[in-house]
Specification:
By secondary structure, this protein is an alpha/beta fold. It has 15 helices and six strands. The chain has helices at about 5-15, 70-80, 90, 95-100, 100-105, 115, 120-130, 145-150, 165-180, 190-195, 200-210, 215-230, 235-245, 250-270, 290-300; strands at about 45, 50-60, 80-85, 180-185, 275-280, 305. Strand 1 and strand 2 (about 50-60) form a beta hairpin. The longest helix has 22 residues, at about 250-270. The chain starts with a helix and ends in a 6-residue tail after the last strand.
């Protein structure tokens, strides 16, 4: 928030990458980095008559201590000729990606953050912005969901979690350097609509819960616990996370259920290609009865966990 350019760059990264840090959790998560074996990666494969499609459950932001990744990641990547993300990074990181959608981030009807939010939530936003060295007046034009994404992920953790260290960015850089084609399961517009179509009262509630002192600490614990479950390959732990999303049924439906359902036909289409494909999506999309693994199984596909059956 030190300058307009810096602010917009941060907003672009935070808004366009879904930081799944929503729910309450318990316990602490130490940076327990496991060995270089195969047994801890949330990577699955489906073999068709024509190819193999790998599905990797990712974390969008990580810290340096989680690298290098275990061998299962390398196996799935090097055995694939194409890499598919939630949004194609070629589009996501294009220079004009922010400006193209700026009208969706900001109020266009004369509203401001102050008029849109309840007094309590607005007060919490003001305190958070000022604590970060910012000026509330500079964010008045942004919609509550934008502030939810940008502010609720500001934790006091000693670990430096950054989008540039996330799984998506890691494999995008590898694919780009190797000349491997990339693609996306949805557009930037699709992803922004998840938040922008939420009623203001739900945006207010999410923002208030995340910025309240107790809520903020719970979110930090929940995030660290989620990273630990991901790192240890604990799908059951992630299923508990997904269940917690149901506190806000409409948000749960938009964030996970509808998107997962929209992705199934595309995944089935990728199974008809000649080349192997690696699909990278947020780990929460794999878990639960509405998750990709359950939906694909219902469709009759045999799914095998790569890290349990190497090579």
């Amino acid at each position: 928030m030190d300058s307009t350019h810096h602010q917009q760059r941060k907003l672009r990264l935070s808004c366009l990458l879904l930081l799944i840090l929503l729910v309450m959790g318990s316990g602490t998560a130490q940076g327990q980095v496991v060995g270089d074996g195969y047994n801890n990666s949330l990577i699955y494969k489906i073999q068709s008559d024509r190819n193999t499609v790998y599905i990797l459950g990712s974390i969008h932001v990580l810290a340096e201590e989680y690298y290098p990744l275990t061998r299962s990641f390398s196996y799935a990547y090097y055995n694939s000729q194409k890499v598919i993300f939630e949004i194609d990074p070629e589009i996501l990181f294009s220079p004009d990606s922010f400006s193209k959608h700026e009208k969706q981030y900001t109020f266009q009807n004369g509203n401001t953050l102050k008029t849109a939010l309840s007094p309590k939530t607005y007060s919490l936003v003001k305190l958070k912005v000022e604590a970060l060295g910012g000026d509330i007046q500079k964010v008045e034009k942004y919609k509550p969901w934008v502030l939810y994404l940008t502010l609720s992920g500001k934790f006091d953790s000693s670990k430096d979690f950054r989008p540039e260290l996330g799984i998506e960015n890691h494999f995008y850089r590898m694919a780009k350097d190797a000349g491997k084609p990339t693609g996306g399961l949805e557009t930037i517009q699709d992803q922004l609509n998840v938040f922008d179509t939420l009623p203001l009262n739900i945006q207010d509630a999410l923002l208030q819960e995340s910025l309240a002192i107790t809520g903020s600490k719970e979110r930090e614990q929940a995030f660290l616990h989620m990273v630990k479950d991901w790192h240890q390959g604990n799908l059951d732990g992630l299923e508990q996370l997904v269940e917690s999303f149901k506190t806000y049924p409409l948000f749960y439906k938009k964030l996970l259920v509808q998107r997962n359902q929209n992705w199934i036909p595309q995944i089935e289409s990728l199974l008809k290609e000649k080349a192997n494909v690696l699909i990278i999506v947020g780990a929460a999309h794999l878990a639960g009865k509405d998750g990709l693994l359950a939906l694909l199984t219902e469709k009759g596909h045999h799914i095998e966990r790569v890290s349990y059956a190497m090579p």
